[in-house]
Amino acid sequence: MPRLALYALVVCVLAVTAAVVSFVQGSVLIGVVWVLLSGLSSNMCWYYVKRGRDTRRQSATG
Q: Residue 10: CA atoms inside 13 Å, Cβ hemisphere, count?
């Protein structure tokens, strides 16, 4: 797994944790912001994983 994908995954996990804490404390608006950030970082993680896989596949074939 590429390093940037790991960083994005860590950010995603931390954002989900922060969202849960925010909702438990009753701060719905901040919780929604954390949920949106976790969605963004999740998409970044998938992008970097796919990009790394495609790069490895291209370097192996040519």
A: 7
- Which helix H or strand E contains 26, and what residues bound it? none
Q: What is the pLDDT of residues 17-57, one digit of tens each?
A: 999 999 999 999 999 999 999 999 999 999 999 999 999 99
Reply yes or no on whether the pLDDT at 61 is more than 90: no
For 53, what's the count of Cα atoms within 13 Å in the CB-facing half-sphere?
A: 7
Within 8 A by CB and 6+ apart from 4, the residues are 44, 48
- Coil, helix or strand at residue 27: coil
Q: What is the pLDDT of residue 1?
A: 82
CA dihedral 43, 49, 55, 60 (to 10 degrees): -150
